[in-house]
Amino acid sequence: MASRPESDERDDALKAVTHIFFDAGGTLLAQTPPPAEIFRQVLERKGKVLDRETLAGALRSPDLIVTLIRPMTSSLEPEFFRSVNARLLEYLGLRADDADLDDIHASFERDVVYHSYPEARRTLKHLKAAGYRTGVISNFSHRLPRVLKEAGLAPYLDTVTYSFEAGAEKPHPKIFHAALARANVAPERVLMVGDSYEADYLGARNVGFHALLLCRQGPSRAACPAIRSLMELPALLGAAGSRD
Fold it and tell me: Is the dihedral of CA 36, 38, 39, 41 positive or negative?
């Protein structure tokens, strides 16, 4: 898989790009410890030993997707995540008792730290200086604006659109259309960059965006344009021409 658009025709198409939207978690932001490790640690303390690979695989399972159909208020967040965590435990064949769910929620609230990837701020700063508008489209709670601010990324973002506010998660078209409306831009002027083939790449392409898959760990099996680092974007877009 090439790390650049695959043809001159694709380069010509990118000349129209004026806005670049990014996924948050896994693209601009890293989470420490990762979700699978939090579940592993909490369950291990209770004598329920599961390996990281099993937990990580369960967290990626389509069977555990809880689809939002309307915006989620902040007051409902704890109950929402509690139901999601209960489904995960049941999926793993474990009893979802109140004590386990309380401890998992407390661990996420207490222990999770978000920080920007080393190249994220430099890339956003470079793109902004070059005249691009930048934004985020993310499946995230109402914490996202604060997390982006604490990570030092907020000054370099023009818009932030996230699922709990939009009432839909990627790859549903609704969240992408919400981002377009907020940025007041047509889909053919937008490039989406994210680390999920289904949520970010396919979701964006299905609403008419240009898209690139971020593959930090190496080539993906997905047959689509990809980059290994966010730092590839300025040169890639610079070769495509200036913004209107």
Answer: positive
Residue 166 CA to residue 138 CA, distance in Å, equals 10
Q: Are 50 and 40 in contact (CB under 8 A)?
A: yes
Q: If you ran DSSP here, which 8-state letter would residue 123 be given?
A: H
Q: Cα–Cα–Cα angle for 36, 172, 70, nearest 5°? A: 90
Which residues make Cβ contacts (< 8 Å) with residue 204, sequence separation at least 6? 21, 176, 190, 192, 194, 210, 211
User: Is the sign of the CA dihedral 147, 62, 168, 76 positive or negative?
Assistant: negative
Beta strands 29-32 and 113-116 are antiparallel
Q: What is the pLDDT of residues 207-240, one digit of tens each?
A: 999 999 999 887 777 788 999 999 999 888 884 5
Tokens of 154: 């907020």
Return d(Cα 221, Cα 6) in angstroms, integer.
16
How much is the pTM? Answer: 0.86
β-sheet bridge partners, residue 59: none
Name the residue with tokens 């981002």.
179
Cα separation, 200 vs 212, in Å, equals: 8
For the stretch 14-32, pLDDT in tens is 889 999 999 999 999 999 9
